[in-house]
Design goal:
about 170 residues; 5-stranded antiparallel sheet; single chain
Amino acid sequence: MRKIFLLIIVNCIMHIGVCNCTSCEDDRLCLYNNSEKSLFVDWSPIYPDTTLISNQMSAIFTTNGKDTANPGNWIKPFQKGSVFVMNTTWEHIYNRNDTQMIFIFDGNVIWNTDWEIVARDYLVLQRYDLSLQDLQKLNWKLYYPPTEAMKDIKMYPPYQEKEDED
């Protein structure tokens, strides 16, 4: 028991040493969920490869259980959430790759479907392929479903204007 306590203390000290900034996350990027669905959101820096890595989420779910898997990645209906990166900034991420992908999934699908099926059938509600300039133009605000202000952003499925309801 004493060894476990000592390991926890050492781990905390090491974490504080690595994270010596005031805020260790860059949370400027907000996603507004303007739908009745709970959303699960993730991002990937491996553009142009848009495939979903089959073990990307299953490892998280296997380790933590779906009820605790990245709780910050879940956005409730008509709420907003931050898509953040730890121990770096979005600008630094973009220095490595000029396009980042934001994946938006139906939370019910993620909760009730094996990740292998989600990946194989590409059960993505929306994917935004974003440059740093795109985010700056949008003032670091994304929306689901996409708004007219986002119509020029590369996305899958492509932006469709809402039809007038007469």
